[in-house]
Amino acid sequence: MLFRSRSKAEADWFNDRVDPKLHTGSVKLFDDRNRQMAQKIDGYLATGQTHFIVVGAGHLVGETGLLKLLARKYRVTQE
User: Fold this and answer.
1) Which tops the pLDDT comparison, 29 or 18?
2) Is CB count within 10 Å lower at the N or C end of the chain?
3) C-alpha dihedral, 27 to 30 to 32 to 36, nearest 10°
4) Measured between alpha carbons, how far is 42 from 20 in angstroms, rounded to an integer?
5) SS3 2
6) Is the distance from CB of 18 to CB of 24 less than 8 angstroms?
7) More confidently predicted of 42 and 26
8) What pLDDT, on a 0 to 100 scale, did the predictor assign at position 30?
9) What is the 3-state secondary structure (H, E, C) of 49-78?
């Protein structure tokens, strides 16, 4: 599984600016949705076909981001 990004620094910049007061909303907005999206993406990958999947940058980063969730089962590399 490949993903493109300008840099890890940009992802870190985004994470550093998330207001802790927004954490409750971000759990629903990101964490819960990330788990659901990871399951859906896993289903696509299991077909063996090629798929083009687009998600917002906020869903890629962090400990509960799609990249970490999918890395539990797949080898995730940056191109």
Assistant:
1) 29
2) C
3) 180
4) 30
5) strand
6) no
7) 42
8) 82
9) CCCCCCCCHHHCCCCCCHHHHHHCCCCCEE
The model's pLDDT over 29-76, given as tens digits with 9 standing for 90+, comes to 788 899 999 999 999 999 999 999 999 888 888 889 999 999 999 998
Count how many residues are written for the chain: 79
d(C-alpha 79, C-alpha 39), whole Å: 23
Residue 63 to residue 49: CA distance in whole angstroms: 28
| Structure-token pair, residue 44 | 């696509």
| E strand spans, 1-79 | 2-3, 77-78
- pLDDT of the residue at 78: 77
What does the alpha-carbon distance between residue 35 and residue 59 come to, in Å, rounded to a whole number? 10
> Coil, strand, or helix at residue 20?
helix
Inform me whether the pLDDT recorded for 15 exceeds 70. no
